[in-house]
Amino acid sequence: MNKRIWIGISIVVLLLGGWFGYRQLYPANRTVGSLIPPGALLVLTSDRLQDTVSARVLRTEISLRQIPIFNEARQRLDRFLYATADSATVLKFVTGRKISYSLHSVSKLTLDYVFYIPLTDKDQPFLNRLVAPDPRRYRVLNHTFSGEKILDLVSRSNDPVGSFILTDNYLIGSVSGILIENVARRMHQPLKFSGSESALAEADFRFDADHLAGLSMRPEVLQSLFSNVGSLVRLFLPEQLNLQFRPSASRSHLIGYAVDNIGARSDVAALFAGQSPQRIQHANLIPQTTATLYHIGISDAARFGRSLSRLLGSASSEFLRDRFSQIEPATGPLYESLGRDILLCRMESPTGAARQVLILTAQDGKKLANAYQQVAYRAGANARVPVKSFLGHKTLFLNVPELPASLFSSLFSGFPQSWITQHGSSLIVANTEEAMQDYLQQVQRGAVWTSDERQAELVNTTLRPANFTAFVRLNRAQMTLPATWPVAWQNLIDQIDPTTGSPALANLENMAYQASYGNENIISTVILGRSTRRASQAVFNRLLLQKKVEFNASLISAPVVAGSLSDGAAQFYAQTNAGQFVLVTPEGEKTVQETTDGPIRSNTLAVDFLNNGRLQYLFMTDKTLYVADPGTNEVHLQAIRLPKGIDTSYLARPRGSQRRNLVALIAHEDGHVYALDRQSRSFVRIITAPRKGPLLLPFQVINTPSGMDILAMQPDGTLNHWRENGTQYPHFPVRIERTSEDEPEVQFRGPALLPFGRSTIHTITEEGQLLTLTTNGLIAKRTQLYRPVRAGSFRLFPDEEQTNWLLLRTTDTEVAVLDQQGQRRFEVRALQSGRNDVRYHRLGAGVELISVKSGGFTTLYDLNGRIVGDRPIPSDFPVALQFDERSNELYILSGAKQAVQLFSIRLR
Q1: What digits encode the pLDDT tens for the residues 804-838?
Q2: What is the enclosing helix (H) or strand (E) of 20?
Q3: Against a cut of 0.90, is the pTM above it?
Q4: Helical ranges in 802-872 per DSSP H
Q5: Integer Cα distance of 656 and 681 in angstroms
Q6: Which domains are assigned to the chain?
Q7: Which of 210, 361, 429, 905 is the most exposed place for a label (fewest CB within 10 A)?
Q8: From CA 608, how far away is CA 389, in angstroms rounded?
């Protein structure tokens, strides 16, 4: 009897166990995680994403829908739901629901979402409308896949809207039919006891008034989005990120928090063992043009140095291991001298060149500088390099490749050479002399993060205390991340937002990842948002007069600006027809300083001519070069006589010159190049042209590892490529000839250009033959551009800093701006004959404009031909432009009749 009872109990236990095991493999009510196909890149969940947001909030705060990844998910669902119901019905259906969205790769070039909407018993009327939409507009087809019924919503013209599956608990849909079939396949697969393959969705997120969304993602996804920040960012990421998003105190950013196990990141955690997380303390050393920032915060320099030595001693890079073994005996004093902040700033670069500055804060600045030099000398630097001076800083050149990377890991690579100086108690290391000079200029005039209220708020409030921070400002000139993102991500995110008419990424400016390392966990923070204010429609794109200063006499040249127009501290210099040189103070006071011997003909060059730690401004009249040295309420002029025959329309900066006393270059009508020697205060000829004839301006000055090169075209087709010592490169000068006797003689009206990072020279003949030449002077390609009936003449059209170029076709009354392949961008017609001036401005932060002056007015265009500003700008001379990315404000200084006027335009 007992035996039968035990057998019965065993059978019941087996049945219960079998039933329990079956339900584990095939649960009756699947969770979202069990529905998501394997390989999801990320899963986001929110009960707010579909909410409507007012125009005021969109302008003054950051919302979920302004973050591109979230916005794309919202738009996918909106397109599906609004196809079958009106707005009120859809909003009633989605309000308050915790909707999940998973992102998947559909192909190498395509990403798409699947959405999962939880259902209740009250949703049947809406589902009925979904299954049976208005037959005049849509119809629903169906097919079976993996035993699951899939419904396809299509328009009457058979355009697919989306596919969906209805279960007892969820409405599952996607624009991609492939992804819906993957969901169907997933629904009929047993779940593994070890957990769901889509464990990304299983995080327990909190949703309330302060917590807007949850996001689970694989670290390699975040790594790919930080791809131009540096490949080593992946070392600082946990193995999985489960981010809970809430708004920042200022409502300008969304902050995502995650606490994850250290797992395989124990080596990085060991690097920060004993280092207390902290905020960035030296934001006063971060320049305004920083596009990418790394920060490592340390509290115990000696301990950090020992940990870093162990890490570098076992580095995967053979170069780093060998270099570190070479310099290791000298690294101890350097590490022990470090202060609390190690900062690497990558500044925006119009040319695409890497402009990097490493900032090492110190407990003892002099000790740190000496220790850094000793490390450099041990690595092979020349100890007898002359010291240069710029803005009161002594700068030293150290020709040691990748020295910062040798000391602080490959995260700090990109320094083929180093320029160092001491600023206060900090050591500044730049990868080029130009980067060093640009950095010192910004620090001197206070163009740093602490001087910007919103950037200071970002540093002091929004960014959290952390051991490591990687920060990126999107939409910077030549630093915009989508250019380096995987193509599939670009296709998904960098689209035009139909609600604003602008790229979705325009809503996002700042992206940061921060990590703090404890004994067992990594505390991660992802920050997304913007610092600059968005313009309201009341002021957006309006030309506003900020200041007007009137004179008793007419102006004879364009006003000269000294300093930044945006901070209100800039001085203006104006010339009247009485020959007076007038200083206009920031308060608008006018003071006659001195007289000049004629109107200013050239551009203005800012240099440290007097070597007194301040910038002076150089410009030329017909006979004289003047050096303007600004004071508090005065300006001193020094005159230097020009050699006879000088072209006074153009001053060039001697980039990369090995002769530290040369501060400016000018061209002679015979094709020679003269340089201004700061020490002797005279002009010396450094280039002698073998063929007489003027140089087409602007000639190009190229910074090379061996010094300064000059590339210059002459009207008859003679192309010169000089070294700094006056010799030409092999095969130069090159004479560009016509290809047949039937063609007219080759003539040029514009310069040639060797763009940074390229190995070909570009130019165009007056008749529109676009030429590509190798650096040996051989013609690699000829392309004849289309010439309309009113043919006009062609010329290469570089921007004012020669960082990029377009092509220009002009007649006496028309201007056509072409791209680099000769395709038309836009045309401007009905100009005043003989009174036109066209210039190309690259103003930083990705702002590129064309100014067209015709008669007494100037009109600004973007590169697509859209007019910037609601009316033309009164101007008798070419205008001066500056852009302040802190406020998105474009400043225009213009001289017209008897007044100097300062205008502004708020950009988007």
Answers
A1: 999 999 998 999 999 999 999 999 998 998 889 99
A2: helix 2-25
A3: no
A4: none
A5: 20
A6: 24-217 (no CATH), 221-238+250-485+501-529 (no CATH), 535-585+592-639+800-908 (no CATH), 642-794 (2.130.10.10)
A7: 210
A8: 9
